[in-house]
Specification:
This protein is mainly alpha-helical and 192 residues long. It is built from six helices and four strands, in the order ββααβαβααα. A hairpin with an 8-residue loop joins strand 1 (3-7) and strand 2 (16-20). It starts with a strand and ends with a helix.
Length: 192
């Protein structure tokens, strides 16, 4: 008679059972979790590498492209504030802020995704974040060289990097939750 291994899951998680004539109680679960982790951890590592690539590829190329479009790193603007503070100037940020807005979006959206990822679903948030990063950080940001107007180029750059930063925070929060749940499953296997 085959032995059956049962593990009670977390609240909301389905219980599952496996049977095998060769394994002791609990060993069949160990084999499945180890096989899942052999696939899961390399895929998550590849995803993190792609996420980092989308974040770090534009800085070497973007400044020269922005200069060709007529943008400057920062521009001193004399505006109405001169009437109030005659010795102060406002620095109008142009393409220098494109790199910082990515991290600003990640900072603003991370608490939201950390709080609502369990309610929205880890897998869905992870996929939506990956799509945001791929579409805005990869495809649309790469097509900005077709825009000729300087200010349109700058504003679209801001939008693409901001949405890519939001996608980064979504994939980071959801991916961290997925990795921690997999590690927790491995720890349960070790302690059985």
């Amino acid at each position: 008679m085959p032995r059956t291994a049962r593990r009670k899951g977390f609240p909301g998680e389905r219980s599952f059972s496996y049977s095998s004539p060769y394994l002791e109680v609990g060993e069949s679960h160990t084999v499945e979790v180890l096989m899942q982790s052999y696939v899961f951890f390399p895929v998550m590592s590849l995803g993190n590498m792609c996420r980092g690539t989308l974040m770090s590829v534009p800085p070497p190329f973007y400044p020269t492209e922005a200069l060709q479009k007529g943008a400057t790193p920062s521009q001193v603007c004399k505006e109405r504030i001169i009437m109030v503070y005659p010795t102060k100037y406002i620095a109008c940020l142009q393409y220098g802020f494109v790199f910082g807005i990515y991290y600003l979006a990640a900072l603003l959206f991370s608490p939201f995704f950390a709080a609502y990822t369990p309610r929205l679903g880890t897998k869905g948030v992870f996929i939506a974040g990956g799509l945001l990063q791929g579409v805005f950080g990869g495809l649309l940001f790469a097509m900005l060289d077709d825009v000729d107007d300087t200010m349109t180029f700058i504003y679209l750059s801001y939008l693409c990097r901001f949405m890519s930063g939001a996608g980064n925070s979504a994939t980071f929060c959801a991916g961290s939750g997925m990795v921690l749940s997999q590690v927790h499953a491995l720890c349960n296997v070790v302690h059985m």
